[in-house]
Amino acid sequence: MPVQSHDGGLTLTLGKSSARILFYGATVTSWKSSDASHPDESIERLFVSTKAALDGSKPIRGGIPVVFPCFGAPSHPEHSALSQHGFARNSVWKWDGETVLDNENGVSVRLTLEPTPEITAKYKKPFHLAYVVTLAKNQLSTDLHVKNTSTDSDIEFQALFHNYIHAPAHEVSITPLKGLKYLDKVDTSSDGLKTEERDAVDVRTSTDSVYENAPGSYEVKWPGGGIGIKTKNLKDVVVWNPQAEAGKKIGDMEDGGWERYVCVEPGYVRGFEKVEPGKSWIGHQTLSLL
Ligand code: TA6
């Protein structure tokens, strides 16, 4: 079966590749695929902390949490009652039992989220979210559809795919970010606004950088591996790894977990995307093995 529903989520299978998506947060918690150097083995491409809560009590520490409608602490008046990164990553999404696509090229499912009493208590805007996850050979794609279901007012939001890429953090290099303006959230000695001067960005020291108006296509490489990211409608990208000092303070981070991932997160997070009544917006990414 290409799509199986069990234990609060879905497992997609295509040949030797698989992906796991939880209804909680629509969080992709696993993407496995083989590659040329491991043709008979499925390798896990995402990092999930062994201390991540998987019982719906808090957002998942790893995989691909969906950030919506605010990134970080809320900075828009309509988001003021929300917690960091919004409600999409800790709400339970629905699946209608259908497989959107099922052929030799890919398997695809769609989860949806509409206002619930818990959401409406903190966020008054009407919306319909759909999240489409597609597993293809050596690729995983995610599409977030945001529909403004209001008849008379705009919605303004931020959205981001918080990808925890399984990688040796001390050896990764991320390109091409040179020349971009970014907010360095680790540097509290100044306003943090900088221009990237490095040909390739690393995370050997604690890194929390929000690049704006980025090219939308990135390579995350390390000796013996790499992931490419291609996006649409996501003008910014965040690079995050706390390293040991800050990482040890994260309650649900496994010991040394920061050595085993880098977050490279395409999003619309500097300023707000605006969608008119009845209109929709789609943010897209494809992760590919390099
Ligand atoms: O995307 C980077 C970031 O916003 C960091 O500032 C960092 O704290 C991280 O996300 C994790 O946030 P979380 O709410 O999941 O602990």
From TrEMBL:
It catalyses: alpha-D-glucose 6-phosphate = beta-D-glucose 6-phosphate. Transmembrane segments: none annotated. Substrate binds at residues 61, 84, 89. InterPro entries: Aldose_1/G6P_1-epimerase, G6P_1-epimerase, Gal_mutarotase_sf_dom, GH-type_carb-bd. Pfam families: Aldose_epim. GO terms for molecular function: carbohydrate binding; glucose-6-phosphate 1-epimerase activity. It comes from the Eukaryota. The keyword Isomerase applies. Its EC number is 5.1.3.15. GO terms for biological process: carbohydrate metabolic process. The active site is at 162, 265. One of its GO terms (cellular component) is cytoplasm. Keywords: Isomerase. Belongs to the glucose-6-phosphate 1-epimerase family. Catalyzes the interconversion between the alpha and beta anomers from at least three hexose 6-phosphate sugars (Glc6P, Gal6P, and Man6P). This is Glucose-6-phosphate 1-epimerase.
